[in-house]
What we know:
Layout: E1 5-11, E2 16-24, E3 28-31, E4 36-43, E5 46-50, E6 53-57, E7 62-65, E8 71-75, E9 81-88, H1 90-101, E10 107-109, E11 113-114, H2 117-132, H3 136-154, E12 155-157, H4 167-178, H5 186-193, H6 197-208, H7 212-229, H8 234-240, H9 246-257, H10 261-266
Antiparallel strand pairs: 1-2, 2-9, 3-8, 4-7, 4-9, 5-6, 5-8, 7-11, 10-12
Amino acid sequence: MKKEARTVVRDGGLRVEAYRFEGIARPFPNHFHEHYVIGLVEDGARALSCKNQAYTIKKGDVLLFNPGDSHGCVQSGGGTLDYRGLSVSMEVMLDLAEEVTGRRKLPGFSRSVISDEEAACCLHSFHELVMRGSGGLEKEEALLLLVSLLIRRYGQPFEDCVPECREEIEKACAFMEEHYAERIYLDQICRRAGLSKSALLRAFTRAKGVTPYRYLENIRVGRARKLLEQGVPPVEAALRTGFSDQSHFTNYWSRLIGLPPGAYGEIFKHTEGKEHAK
């Protein structure tokens, strides 16, 4: 079996992260991000679940995940996954969308999986420039061309891509987002939402694609991500975001992000993104 390798590069000028996974066999549990993910399957096939819809993704497919889109995948067949992707924060996407459309409004991608050879080529070209640490003009142009193509073909207002949610579920989410650093119990969430435990679990999982506990863990990972980017050590980031201990934090983080939190933090010590983490 192909040896597993993970590489992540931060481009400080463009404020995006590029990552490359090779020989990946392990599954990714259902989760979400607070940023956009634009990815390209380079080899292998996977069964993907995104926003409660099932897909089979294969070589050449481009993945478009909006912030908050719940998704997870497992390997199909006996091979492994080769994948390259970009993480783009909402702040950066807002700036890019304004450059492309002239309107300062977040885009939402209407499709999660697309088969678009031109988009795949644009993504591959820009990704390679970031991974190589290439010069600014070519790289910036390539990013704008990619985002312009995706917005033109698959973009719509971000609000239109956010599924409607019962008021009770929004109250439950708001409670967890306010108190993520604390020890939270299910009955506290239920009191805020005004639902019984069984009703909350059913309704929440149907609306968000993850259970309340997994939602809370994703919020904690997102907050810890920002701390690591600021140079906060992993053990302190774990404590400040409500994880019971660093081991719990490291295990959950690695399952979702694909590399240890310490290695992730290292890429932000070099603003031009020349540091690789494997």
